[in-house]
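User: structure tokens for this one?
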Amino acid sequence: MSQQSSFQQLKEYAQSQIIGQPKLINRLMIALLADGHLLVEGAPGLAKTRAIKVLGDCIEGDFHRVQFTPDLLPADLTGTDIYRPQDGSFKFQQGPLFHNLILADEINRAPAKVQSALLEAMAERQITVGAKTYPLPELFLVMATQNPIEQEGTYPLPEAQLDRFLMHVNIDYPDAAAEKEILHLNRAEAHRDYAQRAQQPSAITQADLFAARDEVLDVAMTENLETYLLQLVLATRKPGAYGKELESWLEYGASPRASIALDRCARAHAWLDGRDYVTPDDIQEIAFDVLRHRVILSYEAEAEGITPDRFISELLHRVAVP
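Assistant:
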């Protein structure tokens, strides 16, 4: 079976278990293939935890959930040296970051030190405790969630550190038809003799996943499309070339990490669609999730009610498509 067929089966199974959130499933799979991390924002009860748990069940590797709270300490994530009185030595006890798939639930409820420990591990793929540095698993994906409803008692992530997330995904409520399916699935799962569960596909091995990542990197992108991708990112830094009002909306643009993320995600999006080449639609489809947390709007723009998505939408309309 080809790598694309395996991931298509995974996608179909995930959509049978997580109803009404096809975008979240797609972005999780893109993050897996692009070797990046995901920040998901949405109201409670939208299957964020269920999504990564289902993904973890279908990937060879282990899953761990960490509930972020104001009293959490960095050592609660990284681990710590434990004293052994029998021989007077110290032994390192690994923390939850040494798992393959991590759910950092409500990341903005923990203080800056804890957020920094997580984001450092995401960027460096290693942690340092005392004088020793420990590598993290080669397969290492963090999905952090934020609840947009309650902001009291939270610690907003610094804009500069948000750049370490591959994508920032906003999810919304399912429509009426999807919610009806959710009711049916919930009743079926609650039934003792439930036997209609969708057949879970064979777990994708880490070797197959790494092979799929190599295939994604080989997806063709023409020079014209590569130039278009770069023009979009450069336009976030100097939007004045596309309109005077756009220049007044912007404080800071996207870093080179945005170019790398847009390239990797566009290729993964095309690969999951069964193609071996990138189209402008792949870049435009993924642009909002890659750029929304990397552009910082001016005070004037925020006062006018301008959002990062509105700014990105204007850029997509004004930057010429090859």
